[in-house]
Every structure is written in structure tokens, then in C-alpha cells.
Design brief:
This protein is of the alpha/beta class and about 290 residues long. It has helices at about 40-50, 65-75, 105-120, 145-155, 170-180, 195-205, 225-230, 235-250, 260-270, 275-290, and strands spanning about 10, 15-20, 20-25, 55-60, 85-90, 90-95, 100, 125-130, 160-165, 180-185, 210. The chain has a seven-stranded parallel β-sheet with strand order 3-4-5-8-9-10-11, covered by helices on one side. It has a two-stranded antiparallel sheet with strand order 1-2. Helix 1 crosses helix 2 and helix 7 crosses helix 8 (about 235-250). The model is unreliable at about 290-293 (pLDDT under 50).
Length: about 290
């Protein structure tokens, strides 16, 4: 059994959520497209995560597409009562695996129903609107129309809570004027710290911040400082990087993804890793030095 309870919980929507979670994106084939080579191994990872105490899984029906949600349903349904599955809409996949915007009303409605069907649930606990004005980074653009569609689906009882993904401060403010926003999911990690001030502001408002690519994404974090700290603590660099995030702010909820049980255990070990002050100072310096990661 892992020690993820040591990281505590944060209320996401109305659910106490353990701060060490799991992101299902890497359970698909290459480029987050198509099925995995070994579906049974993917199912084993999901079951191991829940058995280890994870009660927050991040997914989307455009992973695959449809692949991760179908795997989650096969692996975990009937779902544990405390399991929070968070999904997202706003994108679709092209035949060439491209990531394409899907912001139209009918596209969003269809995406919500696809998630409901493939997860095998009657209501989606949290749906993030993934903004696609910039595919790899936030870019300005109005989210009023798509968010209004999700707010209507929420009134219909198909969605309990709404969050935002890949967004700017302006879009967050616009979103909060339309409906309650329970979480923001943006790119953030030890080296990529553009949202430092935003995290603190959201914490003050009781809103969860869920960093995607917490370990660097498709280009894993590489830093001599990180490696030195990890060596001193007899831990792996990825465990240390996640432990730093857990220490960064109480509203950070982690969703590192992996298709390996060994790497899953390595990620979950971050909750039990105590970072001494000198290690924290060294790790803080990584984000303060451009090009140091």
C-alpha cells in the first residue's frame, strides 16, 4: 500500500480528493492515439492505482479517441464510491492524430454524451473545458459560448461540476462570471512556472489547480540540480519533482500519467517523501533560472 494519504486532500467540487492522483492519457497507443499494445497491462495499472489509494483519475474521451474511458470502465466499474473521474471536452482527434478544436454546441453535447456512455455513468462529476485557441499553450479567445453550453448541461443534471483547461487569467475570470469553476488545469511543473501567482490566487479562492505535464510531458524534466537532490535523498528525480509540487501549494492536485506499474509506484511515492529546506531551495532555483532545466 502506498503512502499517498500523507499528501492530504483538497476538496474538488464537493469531493475530498487525495492530492496524488493518476492521469490516464498514456494508456493509449503512440501519440495518444489508438489502443495500447497490451490492454490487460493498462487495466492492471488502473487497478493498481485505485488499490494504492488513488481516488482522482483524469481522462478524456478524445484520448484514443474513446480508448482511456473504455479501459477505465472495463478496469474499475462498478466504481468505488469515493472515486472521482474528471474528464474534459473541447477537442477532437483527426484521422492523422491531430488535435483539433471542437467548441461547437453540438460537438460539446456529443462529447459529454460520449464520455457518459464510454465511462458507463449517468452523470459526469467534473468536466473541464479544454481551450484550443492555442494547442500547446493558453491563448486568448472568448469561452462564453462553449462554457454556456456546458452550464446548460450542468442544469440538466449531466454534469456536476465544471473546470477549465489550458486557459489564461482573462478566460478564468470570464468563466467564473458564467458558472462556478472548481478547478484549473494548466501546464506547470518544477521548471515551467508561469502560473506561480495564479496558483496562489486560486488557492485563496478554494479552487484546485491541476498541473498537466507535471513531469515535463513528452519531453521529461532534465536538470542537474534535480538529479543531485534526488541522489542525496535516495529517490528518483521524478519522485522528487512530484514531491516539490505537493509542497508547492495545498490546492495542487497531481495527475502524473504512466502505463507502467513500476513508474506508478514511483510517482505515488512522492507523497511520502520529505523535502528538507536546502533541497527545496535548490529545487526552487530551477524555475528561477531560464534554460536551467
Amino acid at each position: 500500500m502506498s503512502s499517498i494519504h500523507k499528501a492530504g486532500t483538497f476538496v474538488l467540487g464537493d469531493r475530498p480528493t487525495r492530492r496524488s492522483g493518476y492521469g490516464a492519457m498514456q494508456l493509449t497507443g503512440p501519440r495518444v492515439f489508438g489502443p495500447p499494445r497490451d490492454p490487460d497491462a493498462a487495466i492492471a495499472v488502473l487497478r493498481e492505482a485505485v488499490a494504492s489509494g488513488v481516488n482522482h483519475i483524469d481522462t478524456s474521451d478524445f484520448y484514443g479517441p474513446h480508448v482511456t474511458n473504455e479501459l477505465i470502465r472495463r478496469a474499475l466499474r462498478p466504481y468505488p464510491g469515493d472515486l472521482l473521474i474528471v474528464t474534459k471536452v473541447g477537442a477532437r482527434r483527426g484521422a492523422d492524430a491531430a488535435w483539433l478544436p471542437a467548441f461547437g454546441a453540438q460537438e460539446l453535447i456529443q462529447a459529454v454524451h460520449d464520455n457518459l456512455r464510454n465511462l458507463g455513468v449517468d452523470v459526469l462529476e467534473v468536466v473541464n473545458l479544454r481551450c484550443m485557441f492555442g494547442i500547446h499553450a493558453p491563448a486568448e479567445g472568448s469561452i462564453e459560448e462553449p462554457l454556456t453550453v456546458l452550464a446548460e448541461l450542468q442544469r440538466q443534471g449531466l454534469i456536476r461540476h465544471i473546470g477549465l483547461s489550458n486557459v489564461t487569467r482573462t478566460q478564468i475570470a470570464q468563466g467564473r462570471a458564467i458558472c462556478e469553476i472548481v478547478c484549473v488545469q494548466n501546464h506547470y511543473n518544477l521548471a515551467h512556472r508561469k502560473d506561480d501567482a495564479l496558483i496562489d490566487e486560486l488557492a485563496g479562492d478554494g479552487i484546485a489547480y491541476v498541473p498537466f505535464f507535471p513531469l515535463g510531458g513528452f519531453t521529461p524534466l532534465q536538470s542537474s540540480t534535480l538529479s543531485e537532490v534526488a541522489r542525496d535523498l535516495d529517490a528518483t528525480p521524478m519522485t522528487v519533482a512530484l514531491a516539490w509540487l505537493l509542497r508547492r501549494s495545498p490546492n495542487l492536485l497531481l495527475i502524473p500519467g504512466t502505463s507502467s506499474i513500476a513508474h506508478l509506484r514511483e510517482n505515488l511515492a512522492a507523497a511520502g517523501l520529505d523535502l528538507p529546506q536546502d533541497a527545496v531551495r535548490a529545487l526552487d532555483s530551477i524555475g528561477a533560472r531560464p534554460g536551467s532545466a
